[in-house]
Amino acid sequence: MRAFGATALLLSFLAAAPVAAQQPQAPAAVPVGVVAVAEEDVTQATSFIGRVEAVDRVSLIARVTGFLEQQAFRDGQDVGKDDLLFVIEREPFIASVNAAKADLASSEALKLNADLQLQRAEELVRTNNIPVATRDQRRAEAAAAAARVLEAQAALEQAEINLDYTLIRAPVAGRIGRAAVSVGNVVTPQSGTLALLVSQDPMYVTFPVSQRILLDIKRKREAGGAAVDVNVRLAFADGSLYDQVGELDFLDVTVAQGTDTVMVRAKIPNPNRLLTDGMFVSVRVEGGEPEKKVVIPQSAVLLDQQGAYVFVVEDGKAAMRRVRTGQSQGARITIEDGLRPGDMLVVDGIQRIRPGAPVQATPPSPRAG
What we know:
Layout: H1 2-21, E1 30-36, E2 39-42, E3 45-54, E4 57-61, E5 66-71, E6 78-79, E7 84-88, H2 91-126, H3 132-165, E8 167-169, E9 174-176, E10 186-187, E11 193-198, E12 203-210, H4 211-224, E13 230-235, E14 247-251, E15 261-268, E16 280-287, E17 291-297, E18 302-304, E19 307-314, E20 317-322, E21 324-329, E22 332-337, E23 344-348, E24 359-362
Parallel strand pairs: 1-24
Antiparallel strand pairs: 1-23, 2-17, 3-12, 3-16, 4-11, 5-7, 5-10, 6-9, 7-8, 9-11, 12-15, 13-16, 14-15, 17-22, 18-19, 19-20, 21-22
Helix pairs in contact: 2-3
């Protein structure tokens, strides 16, 4: 009797086992970080690639020939206007100045004698003691002596100028580069650049703008009836934003025929010397009144062959939304179409979900935010 009961129990278990296997468990909800989509005030902006240029860029060149006697700066240091940079051997030029002074003194003495001879000739010609021709000759000699004095004065000025050229000073304040010639070498005006000096604050940023964009800006100005304030902001190669704001100060007068672009220049402060002459930066030109736009983290936007899309949470499940992106703002990007304020956007755990999968919405991690 007991054996019959055990057999019946075993048969009932085996009959129930297939039924249990036919009932799959529902997939567990995947936890994802979400944020509520919201609108923000966004200023219209256009991005370009630009190059930083120094406002003043001076190539220091020797203007006289001589031995380079002294370098009065360290390579790469900041210098002030009129600071001494190079000294060329001065003794030969001092000697030339002294010789020119002596020549001037001799010429002035000859002029004094010629003036006295002319004065006597004028008195004698009135008493008919010398012919008029002799008086005229004395006049010519006095005029020649005066011209000789002027020539000697010019030679002295030139000698003093050459002596001043032996002291090469900074024409502008800025940062000086590496010296191209070592002390002890002979330098001439044909030796080329001794060192490059560039100003530091403010700096220029130049970037090409297409004719299409310029025409669009002009039409908007005409439609608005007033000029729009334009700000220029920069981003570095690592994506970090520059904390100073610049302004446009020059628009080129010609169009580059090869690219159909116009070179635009902006001036921007550089108090911390973060901008260096020649570096490339991303230029963001902002203007116009702010508009309400949907702004989300760029990390939430995915791409496939059909374009950009995001994931949102709808009825506890992940749903794919195709979006049309707009301008980027650092780590964030505007959405022109595809999202509405209040949508629950997935920003954390995107790699673990697929369309239609159940999800559990949680606040995002600080990294994702």
